[in-house]
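Handover notes (outgoing to incoming on-call)

Open items:
1. Glycosyl hydrolase: sequence verified, structure written out, both below. Nothing else pending on this one.
2. Nothing else urgent.
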Amino acid sequence: MKFPLVTTALSLLCTLPLTNSATFSNPLREINGSDPFLVYHDGYYYLMTTTWRNLQIIRSKTLNGLKTGESKTIYIMANPKPEGNDVWAPELHRINGTWYVYYSQDRLSWVLTGGSDSPWGEYGDNKQVHTEWGIDGTVVDIPGWGHHYVFSCQRDELQSLCIAKMVTAMSVGPISMLSQPLEEWERVEVPVNEGPAGLHHGNKTWIAYSASFCKTPDYQIATLLWDGRGDPLKASSWKKSDRPLFSSANGNYGTAHNGFFTSPDGTEIWNIYHATQNASGSCGADRQTFAQKVNWNADGSPDFGTPVRTGEVL
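Glycosyl hydrolase structure tokens:
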């Protein structure tokens, strides 16, 4: 295949205009910019971030325009808790021509049912994807194996990563453990694996994920690699990076919980992630949305680079 694939929502784009034609400055969102996920479709960028009590989509024809882009609320929590932290980590995915929104609510995995060929279209009822404790769910289309649901789960009293083959866009088959926070750099303050995001390049598939507790500056991105061999439902078929690959720098901390999107012409893959300027780290609404291009090492592995500075123009 000539161009790399990212996630299901992005890999199905088949007619793309010219590449990014305008510069932009980071951050793209200054308030409620955590857990960002972005797709490009039919001339628009569509961004979702955590707003805690509802699900909103922001769209713009340019990346810089997302700062003041058109906003649409597609779901409101019926009985929010007083602390207002019920809904988070929304993601847009296109499956068989229809868009769905996957999100976390009360530490369970949910999907807002689709029904449109546009991310800006109408959405239906919300349904649970599965019944066990699970957050930060994403959809990864693994070549030759179909759609898989990857999420943060509880295994052996550790916040781990799990994977399941998708039966439909709204349900999954048996769930398997994929990764656990056993390395020292995954266990800062609290052992954590969460925020998975699928990335394809060549004939390889990576799952980027966030390691360690979000309320520390050591909240950072590592990867799992599937090289096309072995059953992707088995943890033994994936190789964990031997270190974190994207960490706090340049005055931005907790640079994690990311997603990937393509440039409009499909030739580039970009990393969208959140960061805080609080040197102690943060799990709150002060996290901001940043984006920067992914480069590639000689062996074909991703080079996420170093987090950009606030105000940096790309």
